[in-house]
Amino acid sequence: MKTENKILILGLIFSIILITFRIGNGFEFINAQFKFSVIDVAFSKSNQTYLSSAILGYLCFLIFSLVTWKKTSGNGKNLLLIFSLLTFIGIFFELKTFYEGLSGIYNGTHFRIGISLALIGYYISNRMNISEPNKKTVGNTV
Known about the structure:
142 residues, alpha+beta, two-stranded antiparallel sheet, 4 helices, 61% helix, 15% strand
């Protein structure tokens, strides 16, 4: 198994298994839970008034972006750029929620798209794997 796929699997695991906690008046562990929503976004307010470990999945996806950037060419870079942008938005949102949690003003906003990012990452990885053998085959026949 390639390194890129291992990183994607880690990101997917951290996107599905969320450790939830509060940090307003010290660290308070709530539980570990499975979240299988492909896209779960609340920009203003929600009833989920706990923080989660989703940032670990976003960091794995960021590492995936950095590892695959050199290996991807042409149109694949455009898709990888969109993937990276969505990852940065997720990281920004998670950091914002940590700040709000420390300040005591967290109201349940969240931006969880880790499963979607994993699917896009697998598409990028598979596309990379398909294009590499074609280049070798063309080079050998000429």
